[in-house]
Specification:
The chain is mainly α. It has 4 helices and 3 strands. α2 packs antiparallel against α3 and α3 runs antiparallel to α4.
Length: about 160
């Protein structure tokens, strides 16, 4: 990623998240517009200067993909992500990796990148629905257990 302030100086930092509109494919947008819509630039102020970090639009090589896999494995170990079951750390790292894969694919073929983005968003919505369903079922089970215990006490 490239980080520049208003004066062209390179800087590093955190940012706010805003999601711009995805340009339509009929209008033939350029790759940078699509990448900025999929992975919006990060913006922040530091010591009175405003900074914007844009996603790189440089194509990736086979070595970059191998390095991405190695980096994912290293971060999973370093952050002690669980290998199975529900793990927010593992989910976060895989989301970051998937975003990078979407970026790389979008540079090569914008239509395929946009399709991958749709798949990613649909998966996130499905997982969110399952999490809501799980929470509802736990609440329901707890309530029924309490009712059964109260009913059992009334019988004695």
């Amino acid at each position: 990623m490239c980080i520049r302030d208003r004066h062209g100086e390179a800087r590093v930092g955190q940012a706010n998240k805003r999601k711009p509109q995805i340009p339509s494919l009929e209008s033939k947008p350029n790759i940078q517009d699509i990448l900025n819509a999929i992975l919006p630039p990060r913006e922040w102020d530091h010591e009175g200067k405003h900074y914007i970090q844009y996603v790189s639009h440089n194509p990736s090589s086979r070595d970059d993909v191998a390095n991405l896999q190695k980096l994912l494995d290293e971060r999973l170990i370093a952050r002690q992500a669980r290998e199975s079951g529900i793990c927010q750390i593992r989910e976060e790292l895989h989301n970051q990796c998937f975003d990078e894969i979407i970026r790389e694919v979008t540079i090569d073929c914008s239509e395929r990148g946009l399709l991958l983005m749709r798949v990613r968003d649909e998966l996130k919505m499905t997982i969110s629905a399952y999490q809501t369903l799980f929470q509802s079922s736990v609440t329901f089970g707890t309530r029924k257990q309490l009712q059964a215990e109260q009913g059992k006490g009334d019988l004695e």
